[in-house]
Amino acid sequence: MVSISSFLGCTSSKGQPVNNEIEEKQTDHSVVVIDSQSDRRNDEGVPSPISGIYTDALNINRRPFAVMLDNQSKARPQAGLDQAEIVYEILAEGMITRYLAIFLINEPSLIGPVRSARPYFLDKAMEFNALYVHVGGSPQAISDI
Known about the structure:
Order of helices and strands: HHEEHEEEHEH
Number of helices: 5
Radius of gyration: 30 Å
Strand order of the largest sheet: 4-5-3-6
Low-confidence stretches: 32-40
Helix content: 10-25%
Largest sheet: 4 strands, mixed
């Protein structure tokens, strides 16, 4: 209170009183309504059964394919990974993880580096009835394929 009252009688160096009134800020309280229906539908296509992304019907009337990809730092950046609809990162061995990328509506011209098959990745690919793309693999995975 003492500090507030000391400012009440202040004047500028030119002898004119100082305006000590606090400026009130105007806040915009307008409401923006977003039409959520416009973001959900694209009349130009049908939704992918994997991701829900709208695409041409020809893109979803086929089998998806699942690709084993390397995830070690030396393998980055991976080619085509950004075009997958779903990417799983699964522990492969030790502390090394690998990616299983599921593609349906996109067909990247280049995908890689492709890695070897493992049974638990194969199980995940079969959830989508996907063609499984790999290079080599464990004896169990090769037997399962």
